[in-house]
Amino acid sequence: MIKLTDIDKWVDSRFQRTFILKGIKLEVQEGEFLSIMGPSGSGKSTLLNIIGMLDKPNAGEYFFLDEPVHKFNDRKTSKLHKNYIGFVFQAYHLIDELTVYENIETPLLYRGVKGKERASMVAEMLDRFQMVAKKDLFPEQLSGGQQQLVGIARAIIGKPKLLLADEPTGNLHSEQGEEIMELFKRLNEAGMTIIQVTHNEKYAEVGTRIVKLEDGAIVSDK
Q1: Total number of domains constituting the chain
Q2: Are the C-beta atoms of residues 41 and 216 closer than 8 Å to each other?
Q3: Left, alpha or beta for 111 (phi > 0: left; psi -120 to 50: alpha)?
Q4: Residue 50 lies inside a defined structural domain of this protein
């Protein structure tokens, strides 16, 4: 599903080039649940953003479903991202001015899904996440755990092939964190490929494989 070859990402200042990622080689098969670990500043989020097509590498090749992403323009990349990838962030990234219902509906609007179909897909998500009673509330009226559930519902409503999660339990207490991990496990068992960045050893082990980064390079993959 994913093949990264010799991926470099750097930042140039006046006299110096600083590498954020260096020589990344990574393959992910469909149906895997991969956890990315490493100390702060090791390049985990940058790697996730490149896989999620939110950022571009400076060098190297990226194939997604055999498509050469590194050769695509922004429009083509954005289309691929929109159709195949769901993203869950640590800071939730919900839209404050929109209700729970409207936040979950947003990706379907971008994809031009018709009104009736949208309504039934959102209703299914609200039901699945037991949030029917909260559909007209705004993000600030929800707990952190509830906001993260809305974020996940929004990420998976379009049935993405790949779910990316950047520290999805970072702002949650342990019980909420375990609930999110249990949900990821079920999604993965149903066939969704998942890549998560986490600091939590226990949550990392929910995945089927752990990749460790240090100083922008992969030091362990098992």
Answers
A1: 1
A2: no
A3: alpha
A4: yes
Cα 59 from Cα 20, distance rounded (Å): 12
pTM attached to this predicted model:
0.92
Average pLDDT over residues 96-111: 94
Whether 42 is covered by a domain: the verdict is yes
Within 10 angstroms of residue 127's Cβ, the number of other Cβ atoms is: 10
Amino acid at 59: A
CA 199 to chain CA centroid, nearest Å: 15
Contacts of 45 (CB under 8 A, 6+ apart): 166, 197
Share above pLDDT 70 across residues of the chain, in percent, rounded to a whole number:
100
Query: Which CATH number does the domain housing residue 59 bear?
Result: 3.40.50.300
Give the whole-angstrom CA distance, residue 140 versus residue 147: 9
